Amino acid sequence: MRKKTAVKKGKNQSDRWLLTYADLITLLLGLFVILYAMSKIDVEKYTELVNALGGVFGRENPGIFSGERSPIPPIVNGVQAQRQKIAQEINSALTGSMKKGLVTVTQNERGITVHMMEELLFASGSAELKASSLYALDTLTGIIARLPNDIRIEGHTDNVPISTPLFPSNWHLSVARAVNTAYYMMGKQRIEPEKISVVGYSEYRPLVANTSGENRARNRRVDIIIVTNAANKDSQQ
Q: Which among 201, 146, 213 has a CA at the least distance from the CA of 177?
């Protein structure tokens, strides 16, 4: 009896390695299944699963499976805030000229545009700055001089042709007015020349249709643009 018991006990102990081997095979099988599943992961479903598990473990995230989007906090637009601040300063400084309709300020994707009417800056058919215009121009230049922004100066005319020894066309007049304005600003407040660009548009960029004397007066202007968008600093728009 003792001999038979010893033989049976020895046989059982010799088979125990099969249990370990079976466990190892099972673990390897599970590992390969996981690796296969990860190789074909659906990112959207994976994200939903992670968020759902986060909710189970205490992180609130409603609407994961309902298709609802979590509210996104508003992003402060730094460029827009900069435009608003500069525009407000210009409006306050040039209130008198703005009330007379000699200066208007607008904003677009390029930046802030200060429209300075011919009546304020020049005599009809002339590119020489009026002495009476210098206060408004000095005030604006003082604000611009403190800014790091590039400045674009654009000359505009109406559609009435001009032909004089000095200005054979509206192109010549619009460019001369923009250049003289730029030179004055660089000399008065020592604005760096590399920040300034000059262009003349003649009659081809009107604010309003040239259908009346009043409209033509609005189109005869110099636009001083404070560029707040680097991508548009050399834009011709």
A: 201
User: Contact at 8 Å (CB) between 185 and 137?
Assistant: yes
Q: Report pTM.
A: 0.65
Closest to 228 in 3D by CA, of 169, 172, 139, 144? 144
Q: Which of 71-75, 120-124, 203-207 bottoms out in mean pLDDT, i.e. has the lowest?
A: 71-75
User: What separation in angstroms does the CA of 41 have from each of 28, 32, 36, 60, 99?
Assistant: 20, 14, 9, 24, 65
Separation of CA 175 from chain center: 29
**Which pLDDT belongs to residue 65?**
44
Q: Where are the domains of the chain?
A: 2-56, 78-232
Pairing of strands 103-107, 196-200: unpaired
Structure confidence by residue, pLDDT tens digits, 118-149: 999 999 999 999 999 999 999 999 999 999 99
Residue 173 · residue 162 · CB < 8 Å: yes
Q: Top-level CATH class of 78-232?
A: alpha beta
